[in-house]
Amino acid sequence: MARYLRRRLAHSLLTLLGVSVLVFVILRVMPGDPAKMLLPEGAPESAVEELDRQLGLHRPLPVQYLIFVRDVFQGDFGQSFQYKAPALQVVLERVPATVDLTIAAMVLIVAAGGPIGILAAVRPGTRYEYGGMVFAVLGQSLPNFWLGIMLILLFGVALRWLPTSGFEGWRFLILPSVTLAAYPTALVARLTSSSMLDVLGTDYIRTARSKGLANLIVILRHALKNAVIPVLTVVGLQIGALLSGAVVTESVFAWPGVGKLIVDAIFSRDFPVVQTVLTLSAATFVGINFLVDVLYTLIDPRIRYA
Amino acid sequence: MSTASARPPAGILLARLWRISPMLVVGGLILLVVALACAGAPALTSADPIKTRLGDRLTPPLGLGGTSTHLLGTDNLGRDIWARVLYGGRLSLILAAGSVILAAASGVLLGLMSGFAGGGVDDLIMRAADVQLAFPVLMLAIAIIAVVGTSPLAIVGVLALNGWVIYARTLRASVLSIRQLEYVEAARAQGATAPRIVVRHVLPNAMAPLLVLASAQFGTMVLLESGLSFLGLGVQPPQPSWGNMLAEGRDYLSNAWWLGTVPGAAIALIVLGANLLGDGVRKVLDPWRNV
Amino acid sequence: MRKSQPNVRRVSRRRFLARGGLVLGGALGLRIFPTASYGATQRSGRIVAAVSERMLVLDPADHYSISATSVLRHIFDPLIDVTNDHKFTPALAESWEAINNSTWRFTLRKGVTFHDGTPFNADSVLYTLRRVRDNTKLIKAFVYQDLDAIEKDGEYGVTVTTKRPFGSLPAHLTMLGMLPPGAAGREDSFFQRPVGTGPFQFAGWTRGEVVNLAANPHYWKSGIPRVARVSFRFIPELSTRAAGLRSGEFHVIDRVPPDMAQTLKASPGVKVQSLLGLEVQQWLFQLAKAPNDNLQLRKAISLGIDRSAIIKDLLLSTARPAVCPIPPGLIGHVNLGVKPYDPEKAKALLRDAGYQGQPLEFVLMKDLYPKQLEIAQAVESMLRDVGVRFEIRNLEIATARQLRSAGKYDMFFSGWAHLPHDPDWYFGQWFTKAGAVGLSRYYNPKVEQLIAEARLPDPRIRAQRYEELQRILWTEEEPTIWPYYSQAIYGVRDTVRGYEARADYYVLLSDVSVS
């Protein structure tokens, strides 16, 4: 077990290194010049060159990378090009809003997706199954921005029950988290339901049932435990998607989160901010996956041998 | 002669499928009808999906103040939405299907390699998967599309890149757990090769989750394409796709909701069909249920 | 006292949500910033403006953003203000004059203090101008490279000499807030919590999301500001800005496109204010590339575009067809006649030009100009009717600009808001050899000469030179299509008093109150 975990840890660090190199290279081969994005259109070429020099972009690429790595180990992620402030500070300022939104969405996903899926699976052919199906289809087919704007128009403008945008308290969290959670909730409901169906059809569950165990106990003790593995995989993947894919939701609700920050930073070629966000989010992501793997080995010890 | 002899078996097959899983039949029919409608767009509408008619803009659908000339109303440039949905569907469905196939094929292959080879190959593939997941699609999309342009092929590539990991992981996990099963170990001991184990044991077992994933992903890909359009990286106007129709309708949701809602409904229909089909196929292939 | 500020802000914001908070927020504000005894009116209320462009820095010399200019105008005063009809009026400079073609003299206002109590005088101007000239890291530095000596002329006078004539200097100075000289050497910490002489004091911000301001009780203009606090929120998403205005969370929003303006007009409690903006649309041809290097082809394309249909049907009559590159009201504007729409003549010219039907790339910078994608598609459709094939490329801004620098486009959709209220910058960058080399590749020595002469301080000479060079561009060479001047449209709650819609897209709230 300890050896396995050590190896997983090494892998995680390798992933981080891969991400950082890839980010660095892609940013610099992407078309577009950061200085030109900062300067107004039609600024003279001399001004562009001077600004490139000030930003340190005139150095050869490997040198830039080494400087970046050296600085990161000293806790310095560089100065944001467009915010003119330490990139780490710019990013960290937005982490709380992102974490709040992600947690709220995760709670919704697990609290709604799991039960809906289980209900649909254990009551096949009833309105529960069809209801679950409708939910899964709607959740998976409504685009984020469409859902978000519709929720704003309904609950913010027409009914005035909830604020339309910004983040100044828990009421501001409701509409964005519903919007963000819709898709993964539907996916989790669907996956839970299909893995449950699979497991419920297996011999040992039938045996358990034939032994006269109460249905609920069978579901909880045996079926759910086995159905949870594929669901965990997807939830693990969805956390990554939530962290980086909240862009549209954040834009629609003017949410001061990291998703919007990174898209803006990519579009305006703010290299230090992109590098900081990706390094941090890769670390988070790798960490979460590490935890999911540990969970796997606890739930299904066979995987440990891998 | 040949058609006459082919017909009864097809009918019987359909009837048998219907008995096993009506979902599969309904889902398949939905997808088939939508695909045929899109393919046969010129027969279903005479309107030009690209030609703008500024004087006719934003007419509502029939029954909501519109006329039968424009069944589903017109868009912000006076183009017939029915025509645009049909023609746009061609591109959207091809892009989605292409990217799901590419993602599934490469993901399955890499997952199998990872599971069987183990060691360095496994590490490499799984690290690549981690890097891929930790990396925003958007950045790759910008980089790729900036280099090769917004051709349909580039879009398929970007979408597939976003989708292969889940197959690879599923397959790998499947290989790993199946390899431990006694009867598979026995088969191996008797000299069964990796490809044979894959075909006989791994794929049948992994097929159900794979099909569910692929069917779910089909709808997701249509949506992702709209996300790319939202960011200006998708199908370029005036060529319609459901994605860019949705994206263009965004600013009109409060005064001309049908612009975004019609392609949205088309996407929902596809997602429904794909989900039903996936569940149906899963039931048909379910190794235990058929016992 | 300063320490308690953030707390108070949070309380009042939360209260604001509870919709009872306007009064309480005002009251708290007054307690924190006691009103000056002299002639100040009782201030209450809070105005929330939601603007489309994000504001990222608090340094007036380190951006060229319209929203940052708007917001920072509340914290800092420039030397000179500009009115909505493009007249330059005294702000911190009581008067200014061009002594000769390359020397300016500014006489400063007396009795003005910064928010921290230090007096405003010539040292502030010297520090501000020298900083923006010498610190080439600053975004505005390149404009001020033309400044030579910046000298004190008494406690309240400053003389500036320039390396070449700089007739647009007063216009540029309207965008440059004056800093306290004490900020020298500690700019990083200063701009965390900037101090100016403006009508509002900086109270806090979330970078790129919101800036909160509180009334400056000692402002030198009596009766200003009229509210206790102001918040600017930065919301690029149109639906979100409009929804917040309709729900009553915002008092003012900017950049409302015509269709949304109609929705807003129909919403209770909301009104729409608009006027012709200081902006012209411009669709650049790549002149170094065939077939666009052919004047006949360019003329044919121009004749194939039905500007009035675009204006009437797509822009719902919120634009006016252009009659010259410079928008109305600005120095140099002249009526050179609306460009005609004549598809038959266009077809004939195309034949003469020998155009073979090869596709032309029409590049757009994604989401930059309202309705640009619709307009581009309409243009594509119109040109298809006369036989020109256009391929639209709607690309993220950095990629589009890269294509433009590399000359890899045929027509480029762009617009130009004439900041800072002077055409010198526009022509100097887009129609001189040095500037156009990264844009359209335009070059004409005669035009270059006229642009240089138009830098003289004498307004009559300037107007005459601009007219002459525009005649060449508009009627002879047609290197660019200037289709229309757009309106600036704002949505405003009907509780707001005294809001003036600005042609330059500034959102200025010092003279605005809320009932």
UniProtKB/TrEMBL annotation, chain A:
Signal peptide: none annotated. It holds the Pfam family BPD_transp_1. Keywords: Cell membrane, Membrane, Transmembrane, Transmembrane helix, Transport. It is a multi-pass membrane protein. GO terms for molecular function: dipeptide transmembrane transporter activity. The chain crosses the membrane at residues 12-30, 101-122, 134-158, 170-189, 227-248, 277-299. The keyword Phosphoprotein does not apply. GO terms for cellular component: plasma membrane. InterPro entries: BPD_transp_1_N, MetI-like, MetI-like_sf. It comes from the Bacteria. It is found in: Cell membrane. Residues 95-296 form the ABC transmembrane type-1 domain. Its main location: membrane. Gene3D superfamilies: MetI-like (1.10.3720.10). Belongs to the binding-protein-dependent transport system permease family. This is ABC transporter permease. It comes from Candidatus Segetimicrobium genomatis. The lineage of its organism: Bacteria, Bacillati, Candidatus Sysuimicrobiota, Candidatus Sysuimicrobiia, Candidatus Sysuimicrobiales.
From TrEMBL, chain C:
One of its GO terms (cellular component) is periplasmic space. CDD domains: PBP2_NikA_DppA_OppA_like (cd00995). PROSITE patterns: IQ, TAT. Pfam families: SBP_bac_5. Gene3D superfamilies: Dipeptide-binding Protein, Domain 1, Dipeptide-binding Protein, Domain 3, Periplasmic binding protein-like II. GO terms for biological process: peptide transport. It comes from the Bacteria. The keyword Signal applies. InterPro entries: Peptide/Ni-bd (IPR030678), SBP_5 (IPR039424), SBP_5_dom (IPR000914), TAT_signal (IPR006311). GO terms for molecular function: peptide transmembrane transporter activity. Residues 87-435 form the Solute-binding protein family domain. Keywords: Signal, Transport. Belongs to the bacterial solute-binding protein 5 family. This is ABC transporter substrate-binding protein. It comes from Candidatus Segetimicrobium genomatis.
